[in-house]
Amino acid sequence: MTTDAAHPRQAYEIIEGPAAWTGPEMAASSHWRHDLARAEVADLRAAMDRVWARGLAIEDVGLDDFALPVLAPVLAQVYRAVVHGHGFMVLRGLPVDEWSMADAALSYWGIGLHLGLAVPQNAAGHLIGHVRDLGYDPDDPTVRIYTTTRRQPYHTDSCDIVGLLCLQKAKAGGLSALSSSVTIYNEMLRRRPDLVEVLMQPFVYDRKGEVPPGKQETYEMAAFFKTGGLLTTILAPDFIYAAQRFDHVPRLSAAQREALDMMQDLADSDDIRLDLTFEPGDIQLVHNHQVLHSRTDYEDHASPALKRHLLRLWLATPAGRELPEAMAERYGKVALGGMRGGIRVAGARAHVNLVPS
What we know:
By secondary structure, the protein is of the alpha+beta class. It is built from 9 helices and 17 strands. The chain has helices at residues 23-27, 38-54, 72-84, 101-113, 181-191, 193-199, 237-242, 254-267, 328-331; strands at 33-35, 88-92, 117-118, 128-131, 152-155, 161-168, 172-173, 176-180, 203-206, 218-221, 224-227, 230-233, 274-276, 283-287, 291-295, 298-299, 309-316. Strands 1, 2, 3, 4, 6, 14 and 17 form a 7-stranded mixed β-sheet that branches. Strands 5-15-8-13 form a 4-stranded antiparallel β-sheet. Strands 7-16 form a two-stranded antiparallel sheet. Helix 2 packs across helix 4 and helix 5 crosses helix 8. The chain is globular. Mean pLDDT is 92; it is low at 1-11.
């Protein structure tokens, strides 16, 4: 195996530690789950009441406005597990069936404030996204798959932490799955180190029309980076394949396709994947840099009130991991302590929208 300055030999060593987990190991444990206690929910309710009494818009609520004396120490532990540990946590028991949409969104926003800074998720500037079938054509390369019922491949999002709050689950399907990208990397290194090398080279991505000022409609990004002694993974296969619609984009090579397929196959394997069932009130928090997430196809209820509906947060962590400078093409900037990640286009105002769109 050859190496160069961009891909030093240590990038090809097996990685150990809490980030290198398997689904069966996690399924046998409960340390990645936290059931919200009655006092913790009451703490949220009190913070929400203070915000509403002041007449604040959700996007104007800051950390100082949402003190959580009971829940904050728990969220500090959650943050450490997500950003510096195994890379994900699930909080359960938010009483969304008893609360209005605005209450659910505010409580979720308040939890997010204790983990990071919300960044826009689309060209409209939405700071809370609605993961719901909007009737779009999933075969249209410009459509983002989360707005359809189509299965999502294993991927990462353009932020440090992605959170999903379940309001309504599907009639059938729509299951969540997580896989450690570190474990996938290790397994590929054992079986096909040549494909690890492929994934450390750039792929062309489509921005699907969400083009930041001064940028082009496509950009290049590798899947694997080794920075600061950590493996950082970026992967969005539907954006890679969508870029193939442009004449100026080189066709994917056989090796690139094989490498992408192997990542998906390993991520979905019984030996690596952790399956999760969303129930209303569950919050899933995932560190994008070390965990891939996916969703199965689903069948929805006919009634709009019962359709599968998740609220999504994209968070920039104030003191997370060092990111390679190359990721600025996707994240805008990579420096810690600011608003890195998200999608920003000219004329968009960052705001919270409570209506799915």
